[in-house]
Inverse folding.
């Protein structure tokens, strides 16, 4: 209210407001907000007040957006569902007995039920895309460094915050692509505080939405070569393929990058990007205050060989994708292999009649 009142007063004095003037926005509770509690879904940070805003929050405020609150997350973002030990479980506004996904759980729920038109999420392993898909929204994970990160997961002083250093992206969750583009126009761009930060994009985020896709060659893969996918998801995605072919004039080829299941590689990279020593130091006195799946993750005896192999596997996947994409302009895939799962679960146990590994 204070921010909105101050904005009203500035406008009444003839000041030209920013492009997001008066727009209410929710901020994922892993993203630092100065003097506004950033609990990260953890009892250990229940009363944590960051000393400064994250870069994206600085930029949203500079464009006169109104930060209306923080949005719920699983503890430190280590889950694709909306549970944590501090706040109530996040639910999907379209079906309350189902999860909105995670880890940007509250951000997606906020946009889906109309509390805010957009929200900020973050994504290291699907955490913008998963809840956007499960809530019928648009989620954007831009290239590494397109949206700078600081202090957030770059702050080495705080265990649990200083993680995901080579995996994390911050991005918008919105109801439309144009809303996402509007947010990216504000939050993207270089900042010297993030060593991964990219130069300013040489295009206009909103104008590129007006581009013509006619003639583009599109690869379509339902399963990446390894995944089980619900028949209903396959059916919906095939309808989307028709739009690319019949309405947009693209050439679509059903194919596959031929991946092996990267799950072990992913969790090994998460371990490498996590402050394992700092977080493990909590276990003797605080394990009962922490999410059980996070405790299990921290207790696993990750080895240097695990981490080395994971980085080799990641590089191999990058090389495979670079070779694969030489023949295509776009890759079209399902976001998720499922259409949803119950709120009490961490994830589905069976997909298309097959057990999930």
């Amino acid at each position: 209210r204070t921010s909105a009142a101050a904005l009203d007063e500035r406008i009444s004095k003839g000041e030209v407001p920013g492009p997001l003037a008066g727009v209410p926005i929710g901020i994922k509770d892993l993203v630092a907000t100065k003097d506004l509690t950033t609990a990260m879904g953890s009892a250990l940070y229940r009363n944590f007040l960051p000393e400064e805003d994250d870069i994206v929050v600085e930029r949203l405020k500079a464009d006169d957006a109104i930060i209306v609150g923080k949005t719920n997350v699983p503890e430190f973002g280590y889950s694709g569902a909306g549970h944590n030990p501090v706040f109530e479980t996040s639910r999907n506004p379209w079906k309350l007995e189902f999860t909105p996904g995670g880890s940007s759980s509250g951000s997606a729920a906020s946009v889906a039920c109309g509390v805010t038109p957009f929200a900020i999420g973050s994504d290291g392993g699907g955490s913008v895309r998963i809840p956007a898909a499960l809530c019928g929204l648009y989620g954007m994970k831009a290239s590494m460094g397109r949206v700078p990160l600081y202090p957030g997961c770059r702050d080495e002083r705080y265990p649990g915050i200083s993680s995901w250093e080579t995996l994390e992206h911050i991005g918008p969750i919105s109801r439309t692509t144009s809303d996402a583009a509007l947010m990216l126009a504000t939050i993207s761009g270089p900042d010297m505080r993030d060593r991964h930060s990219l130069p300013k994009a040489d295009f206009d985020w909103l104008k590129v939405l007006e581009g013509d896709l006619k003639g583009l060659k599109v690869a379509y893969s339902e399963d990446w070569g390894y995944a089980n996918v619900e028949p209903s998801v396959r059916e919906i995605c095939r309808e989307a393929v028709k739009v690319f072919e019949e309405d947009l004039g693209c050439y679509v080829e059903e194919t596959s990058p031929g991946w092996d299941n990267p799950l072990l590689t992913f969790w090994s990279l998460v371990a490498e990007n996590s402050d394992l020593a700092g977080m493990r130091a909590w276990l003797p006195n605080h394990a009962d205050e922490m999410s059980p799946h996070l405790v299990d993750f921290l207790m696993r005896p990750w080895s240097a060989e695990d981490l080395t192999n994971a980085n080799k596997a990641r590089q191999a996947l990058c090389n495979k994708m670079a070779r694969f994409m030489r023949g295509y302009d776009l890759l079209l895939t399902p976001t998720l292999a499922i259409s949803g799962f119950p709120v009490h679960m961490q994830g589905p146990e069976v997909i298309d009649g097959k057990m999930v590994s």
Q: What stands out?
A: DSSP finds eleven helices and ten strands in the chain.
